[in-house]
Structure formats: C-alpha cells, structure tokens
Amino acid sequence: MSRTAGFVHLRVHTEYSLLEGAIRIGELPELCRKAGMPAVAVTDTNNMFAALEFSVAATDAGIQPIIGCQVALELDNAGSRGSSADLAPVVVLAQSREGYQNLLKLNSRLYLREADEPHVTLDDLEGHAEGLICLTGGPDGPLGRLCSSGQRGAAEALLEKLAETFPKRLYVELQRHPTESGQLPEPERLSERPCIEMAYERGLPLVATNDVHFPDSDMYEAHDALICIAEGSYVDQQADRRRFTQQHYFKSPAEMTALFADLPEAIENTLEIARRCAHVAERREPILPRFAEDEVEELRRHAKEGLEARLAVIVPAAPRADYERRLAYELDTIEGMGFPGYFLIVADIIKWAKNNAIPVGPGRGSGAGSLVAYALTITDLDPLRYSLFFERFLNPERVSMPDFDIDFCMARREEVIKYVQEKYGRDRVAQIITFGALLSKAAVRDVGRVLQMPYGQVDRLSKLIPVEGVRPVSIERARREEPRLEEAARAEEVVDRLLNYGQQVEGLLRNASTHAAGVVIGDRPLDERVPLYRDPRSEMPATQFNMKWVEQAGLVKYDLLGLKTLTVIQNALDLLCARGIEIDIGQIPLDDEKAFDLYSKARTVAVFQVEGSGMMDALRRMKPTCIEDIVALVALYRPGPMESIPEYCDVKNGRAERQALHPLIDHVLDETQGIIVYQEQVMQIAQEMAGYTLGGADLLRRAMGKKIKSAMDAERPNFMEGARKNGVDDRTARKIWDLLEKFADYGFNKSHAAAYAVVSYQTAWLKANYPVEFMAGVMNCDIHLSEKLGVYA
C-alpha cells in the first residue's frame, strides 16, 4: 500500500447497520475511488451481514476490504443480561484468516447467548482475540465512557486488560466530529486528553477514525430522519433523542489529515492497520455433510430400487428401457457434477417425513423433472408421464447446485426441521436471514410520520406513487411521472422535504427476519463458515448472510416450505378414515368425471390454485377435460401469458382453428393447443428445429428469459445454422426465433405447474367426491379467520 495514500476509514456503517447506516455497499468502492483511498473497513453495528458481499464488491473494484465489526462490549462481567446501559462499542478488525474465524465466532456469540441485548464480554474477547486488531471504540466506547465520567482508575484497568488481550494489536481510538459552532461534542471533549495520556504512558498507538454513517454532508438531514424512524421519535422534538452531527460522513483523507493535524501519527496508523489486515473473505465451493461412505454407490442402489418399486405400481408412460436409459443418464450427470450426497440428504428428509405420516407435496419447482428424484420419492410426479426435462433442473452444461423446493404439511413442518437438527447436529443447521428494504411508499409514510405531518396528507402522497407489478416505483420516477406529487412539493416546503428525504433513504435496509423456507446444513459447525444470528421470535439460529451470499460462502440451501393445502388434504383424509374410508391421495384416478365437472362449472371455492374469480372465469371458458388442461391453466394465469387463455380455450373447444408453426415442431405444442406455454417447450423447439442439446437449449432459454443480449446475439447464428441443416428456410427460422424470444420471458416452468396442478386436482377430487369432509378440513384450517368461514358457508 502506498505510503502517500494518506488515510483509510476504519469505522464505516453501511445500510446493514439497519436504520442507522446509510452507506450502500454498491456505492462504497466508488466513494473510496473518488477519495483516493486504497482500502476501507466496514464495521457494522453488532453484525457481519455484509462481510462477504462487501469483500467481493471491494475486491472486484480494486479496493482492499478490511472486514470488521463494531461489537457491544459488556462493561461489567458480573453476569448482567446485557442491558443497553451496561454496553459500549469496541471495533474488531480481521487481520488474518484466524482473525476472520474468530470474528465469526464473536459475532455468533452476540446473538446466541440468552441476553436482553446482543453483546460480548471481556472473556469472549479474550477467547477469540487471535488474529484480530482492536480499536477501543472512541468517545462512546468503554474507555471513552469511563474517561468522560471521571473514572480514570477503571479506565486504566480496562485499557490494561485490553492491551493484555490484544498484545501489539490494540489501538486507542480518537474521534472528532465538531458541531456547527466548531466545538467537539462533550463525550469527545472529555475523553480525548485522558485517552491520549493513557496511551502514551503505556506506549500504545493512537488511531483516528470518523464514525461514518452517510456518504456526504448533504445527506445529514435525511439520515437524521432515518434515525428518528428507527427510534420512533420526531425530527423537531425537544426531548432527548439520538443525534449525529453533519460530520459523520465519508470524509476525504485531506479533511481527516487537517482535522488531526496535531496528531499525525493517528492518521498514519490507519494505513498501518490497513497494511496489517490482509485477509479477504472469498466465495467458496459448496460443502455438504457426508451421507454415506460411498455416496455414488448408495445413490445408484436407492435409485434403481426406487424405480423398480415405482414401475411395479404405476402404468408406465413409456417402455421400461426408456425409464432405465433416463435413470442411467441422470445418475451419470449427478455423479459427474458431484451431487449424489445432496440427493441422498433430501431423500432422507422426505422419507423420514412420510414414515412419520407428515404429508409431503408431490413436487415443486424444476426438481419434478428428475426421474432420480421420482425414484427416491423426493417427488411424486413421473417426469416421463408429463414430458418434464431433467436439464431444466440440473444442466450438465451449466454447473450449479441443484435446488429442491419441498412442501410439507404446514402444521408439522417444524417436526421436519427438528429431525434435521437432530440428525446433523444443532450447530450445523440454521435458517437463513432475509432483509426488508424501505421501499418508496413506506419511505414516504415513515418520513412523513417523523416530520409530524398529518396522516391523511401523507397517506394521499403515498398513494400517488404508482405500482409496477408488485413493487412501487421509485420516488424519483414517481415525481417525473405523477405531476400531482411535484405540484404538492412546490405548494408546501414540508412536502418537498418529505420527498427529498424519502428519495435519499428509500431502498435502504430496515429490518432483518428469517426466510420462510430456507435451511442450510453444514458438514461442520456453521460458525466456522458464516456468522450466526437469532431472530428474537425464533429459537433456531439463522445465518447472518442472506440467501445469495450464504450459498457463495459454501453452504447449501434446502427449501423446506409449509403448504396449508397439504394440511387441508390431510384433515379431510383423517375425517374419512374415521368413517372407515381409507384413501391414498397419491393413487386417485386422474380422469375423474366429477372432478372435471366441478372444474368446468367453476365450483372451485377452496380448490388449490383456482379459487379466484379470474381463474373461475377461465375454467368456465376452458371446460377442462384432462390434467394437462389444469397444468396449462396454472402456467397461463399470470400477467403476460394470460392473454393467451382465450385462444387456448377457443382452440380446445373447436371455436377457433389452431395455428400451425412448422411440421418439425407442431407436435411439441399439441398439449397446449399450438401455444408456447412452458419453458420446456422453448427448449424442445430449439432441440427439434435447430439441433440443440437440451442442456444447450436451457442455456438459450435462460439468455432469452433474462434478455442477455450478448448471449442471444452469440446464439442466433447457431440457431439459424441448425435450422438450415434441418431444412428450415431462414424466414421461418427467424419467425420461430422471435417467437421463442417472446415466450422465453413469458414461459412457465412446466415441472412446477404440473406438480401444483396435481395438488389442485387432489383438492378438486376430494371436493367433488367427499364435499363434507373436504370443506370440514378447509374450515378447520381457517377456523380463526371468520371472514373466510363466511365465504365457505
């Protein structure tokens, strides 16, 4: 690192210091670049939520990341429960790989102990100090607080203890955030001289930091509103509340050097610390617990035995040889990609659930396209019967982790998670954190409240922000497109303030919770890979990295969802069983006239996926006669594809002629009345017309669906050339390409549609054949929802 760099920020709070920091991770490298700063530390309050994301973003931008954390230290080890009055912050920075591992452990300790507030003790620091550099926390840290309150003796004792815990790795931290009058705030003024004296007496180095919470001084007022949102206070209130100064921004090296001109060593030591902190958090390959000594052989044995068991009870959709070839191909692919253990783990979870009479869904997502999954009873859909593609789930031409989404009975999902914890170890299983953002409408409402504006006025302004899909557009865009917002801002200064503040804070993270379904399972204690968190509403720990980053840290996600419909079905089956009627819902006939009559007449209140008024209208028009119609409707009833429902219905019922595309591919669209409905059809058309492998066709579908222009431009000549080889003229090939490009975006995952269509059919079959028991099962699930019970009456 250049010695002319000047200064490095070692105390930065990003948006992951929830409703406190306002530095966005994506913008931090650019702030460093503009300031000529070669390195920067992120030290969010009591968390490492951003550690890997920040490390990757900074490294990619050529900035050295310093991974740290501001942790609340308990001032007294006398066994208090960590009330906020007893806590003061220190900063710890990872100097090495060992230090990073210790930082993970300390961060996990913050949340996994029984306490009123997240905190660590001096004993925790002592046990996990190796490889960490410690800053004493500035004026609000434990040392600064003791000095400010005149407890010099206690301050010296604490400093001795910290110096002993972090030999040659402790820095006495100084901060200067002058107010508008030029005076330092009282805590800084009272603590600075004693801290300097104690440091010099013991030969301890000083370090200067700025407690950075926002990118520039222009954001001070908006950040002040953000703090009020967090605390439930008001911007203009006279009573005490938490306040920052305009100086808590990302200052330049020149500004910091001028501020500490009398203590140049405190500035120089920021560079020394940056040079000492050499560890970078990196993406890692996935790790899985070992399920068996020879997982390849174990998977092959279970899959072959499972297929035999399936073929013994179903009417095969193809010759046995086709099933065996497909199974062998899938097993070779799974083995080649290194995923036998993953399939075995998922199969074990599902078998345990089924053996314990916990209802499991027939499938969800693209996993239903795997014959191996069907053989292992992970799914209950025969992929050959429904023409589902394995490559849509696991593409040998694009190596990525498989991802089974599994539905369990809502009432008993926790039992499944408990089994996983007991089998693999409680310290190796966790949920996954998720973050809620301050979107534009919420930002307007929250800022309006802290500005003490009338509720009705704020409500009207919020409702003027348009919604696109399910998300409101940004305030900036709303101001451009909705003239009434700008008119209101021009008419009243407070409205202009509201919109300006809202614009600056929207998109920042506001809260943490746990993902509804995601669970990770490790081959070692999880806090050796990621920091852990615990939602106050849950006993089970969660990872501090969200779903995207926990996977990049090397942990594998399993989606274990709770589906109320499975509970409804089980309720109905239990009532029937009490009457002596035993039904295996997985073996009911798929051609029941009563069920399809119920669909055609749209008597589908409480029938899964089709109980809305729009769906009922589509059912009356379609008049379904087979399960494939329900699969198609599940796929079509979405914005975009919905416009094809009338054509599907008219062609099906002879009211319109089917439009042929080309003899090579018309058979692909037979089951959907000549309309491209599924992503799998896009893949099959590319295969049949242009000679793609299904793996290559899946890559093409992804590029088209995500509008990746470079990939599409590269593939178009290949498609045209492949079509020519099959005797297709260029004009027709271009027409089909354009059609695929449109429907790749609209197309739905057929595996998911088929699985949910089967669940829908099961509920329709029960309602058509056993309406009393079915509706009793529904109402027992919704017994607490009086409005819904009225609909069922």
Notes on the protein architecture:
Strand 1 (39-42), helix 2 and strand 2 form a beta-alpha-beta unit. The strands form 3 sheets. This protein has a 6-stranded mixed sheet. A 6-stranded mixed sheet has the order 7-14-11-8-13-12. The protein has a two-stranded antiparallel sheet with strand order 9-10. The chain has 793 residues and is of the alpha/beta class. Helices cover 48% and strands 10% of the residues. Among the domains are: 25-215 and 250-276, Alpha-Beta Barrel (TIM Barrel); 295-434 and 514-561, no CATH class; 437-512, Orthogonal Bundle (Arc Repressor Mutant, subunit A). The chain has 33 helices and 14 strands. The N and C termini lie far apart (74 Å).
List the helices and strands and how they pair.
Layout: H1 28-35, E1 39-42, H2 51-60, E2 64-74, E3 87-94, H3 97-112, H4 122-127, E4 132-135, H5 142-148, H6 152-165, E5 170-175, H7 186-202, E6 206-209, H8 220-231, H9 253-259, H10 264-276, H11 295-311, H12 320-337, H13 340-355, H14 371-375, E7 405-409, H15 413-424, E8 429-437, H16 440-450, H17 455-463, E9 467-468, E10 471-472, H18 475-481, H19 483-491, H20 493-505, E11 509-521, E12 532-533, E13 542-543, H21 547-552, E14 556-563, H22 564-578, H23 593-600, H24 613-622, H25 627-636, H26 645-652, H27 679-690, H28 694-705, H29 709-725, H30 730-746, H31 750-769, H32 771-781, H33 786-792
Parallel strand pairs: 1-2, 4-5, 5-6, 7-14, 8-13
Antiparallel strand pairs: 2-3, 3-4, 8-11, 9-10, 11-14, 12-13
